[in-house]
Design brief:
Helices cover 37% and strands 18% of the residues. The protein is of the alpha/beta class. The strands form four sheets. Strands 4-12-11-10-7-5-6 form a seven-stranded mixed beta sheet, with helices on both faces. Strand 8 and strand 9 form a beta hairpin. The chain is globular and about 60 Å long.
């Protein structure tokens, strides 16, 4: 019989450099491949499966909803969508939520809302969005434009106009650029994920906030990767003392089902009117039921455990042989290794631990509820691989 890997290679578009790993099942933070080999999962499908696999409570919420109604469109009301929006607003102080299906779409909505706000307030020529160099905001043409990394732009021109990129953590450059371009929005990630797990400095975040407030520039925080407990608080902006006008999120929100959310704050809540934006699947009741379970589970006790596990990983790795730097926040961790990151990840897979990379770093995004003993086992393997053959 032809292998799944060869069928996939023949018929699925070549947009991914997949690892030669066919995964068939999961339980908690353990994945099993087609040969029965088990792996500790330190990637959670790029920060998506935040409660691990087969979580009983989450599965119950999803199955209950899937047995009732699976999809209705946004022409009608369903309870998971309304209750999820309520939970998100109550937990953040934001006022309204637009639901979509992915991170890129949550950013599309954020950009549309910010541009409309600024166009109405300051005129049609106020449309430029300032984002950061080395950022990542998605793969649609507009979110590619927002993404401050030229490697993703090549051969896809013309991109959506009206985006400029400035150096992260350079407050002087930002102040100057705001004066020059009359921005419709400033859009940031608190921790650049795809860019190499790089947190913003508190000083830079404070500059962003004060410019946004003084000049009435919508502040958009992209929490697609940092959100939903990943950094040890419900959203990362909460640790920076920011008051965003728009928060976009996805990845961990659905706990494994596709859902994106754009949270609109007080000054943005009535910007988008009927017909201004939409999504056929957005707020799908099954995905929303999963997401509601995720948000309900992320209480103070749960988030405190994320912080405890984070401290353990930072302590273990920052003094490990073959590791030159550890960066990140919560359970979003970047490891600069003496050896090439890709070779470390391959050696870890060999030894039964699945990790990610981000730029030149090894990246860890384990399930937020990974049991401490499992986490310890994975970190021991990662440390051994990083140290192996290093003087
Ligand atoms: C992953 C990611 C996106 C894109 O999300 P998709 O669901 O792949 O569209 C956008 N912004 C950030 C910060 C991300 O990490």
């Amino acid at each position: 019989m032809e292998s799944i890997i060869s069928i996939d290679n023949q018929y699925v578009a070549n947009t991914y450099a997949r690892f030669p790993l066919e995964l068939v099942s999961g339980e908690g933070s353990i994945l099993t491949d087609v040969n029965g080999k088990k792996y500790i999962d330190m990637g959670s499908g790029i920060g998506v499966s935040c409660l691990g696999f087969n979580d009983e409570d989450w599965k119950k919420a999803v199955i209950e909803q899937i047995s009732k109604v699976q999809h209705t469109s946004n022409l009608y009301y369903t309870s998971p969508c309304a209750l999820l929006a309520k939970a998100l607003c109550e937990r953040t102080g934001m006022r309204k939520v637009f639901f979509s299906n992915s991170g890129a779409e949550s950013n599309e909505c954020a950009i549309k809302a910010a541009r409309k706000y600024s166009a109405e307030k300051k005129g049609d020529d106020c449309y430029t969005v300032i984002t950061l160099k080395n950022s990542f905001h998605g793969r649609t043409l507009t979110t590619l434009s927002a993404t401050g990394q030229d490697v993703f732009h090549k051969l896809f021109n013309p991109l959506t106009p009206g985006f400029v990129h400035t150096e992260a953590n350079d407050s002087d450059a930002l102040v100057k650029l705001v004066d020059e371009v009359n921005p419709a929005a400033i859009m940031i990630e608190c921790v650049q994920g795809e860019g190499g797990v790089l947190p913003l400095t508190m000083e830079f975040a404070a500059t962003v906030q004060s410019l946004a407030t003084e000049k009435d520039i919508p502040l958009v925080v992209d929490e697609v990767q940092t959100g939903n407990g990943r950094t040890g608080t419900l959203y990362a902006y909460m640790q920076y003392g920011l008051t965003p006008d728009v928060v976009s999120t996805a990845k961990g929100l659905g706990g494994g089902l596709p859902i994106g959310a754009t949270l609109l704050g007080e000054k943005m809540e009535n910007v988008l009117k009927a017909g201004d934006h939409g999504s056929t699947y957005g707020g799908n009741p099954v995905c929303a039921a999963g997401a509601l379970n995720v948000i309900e589970r992320l209480d103070d006790a749960f988030l405190a455990e994320v912080k405890t596990k984070s401290e353990y990983v930072f302590t273990e790795l920052s003094q490990a042989k073959g590791v030159t730097a550890v960066s990140g926040m919560g359970l979003m961790i970047g490891i600069k290794t003496v050896k090439d990151a890709k070779s470390v990840v391959n050696a870890c897979i060999e030894k039964g631990v699945i990790c990610l990379t981000a730029k030149d770093k090894v990246r860890l995004l384990p399930a937020l509820n990974i049991p401490m003993p499992v986490l310890k086992e994975a970190i021991a393997v990662i440390k051994a691989v990083c140290a192996e053959g290093v003087e």
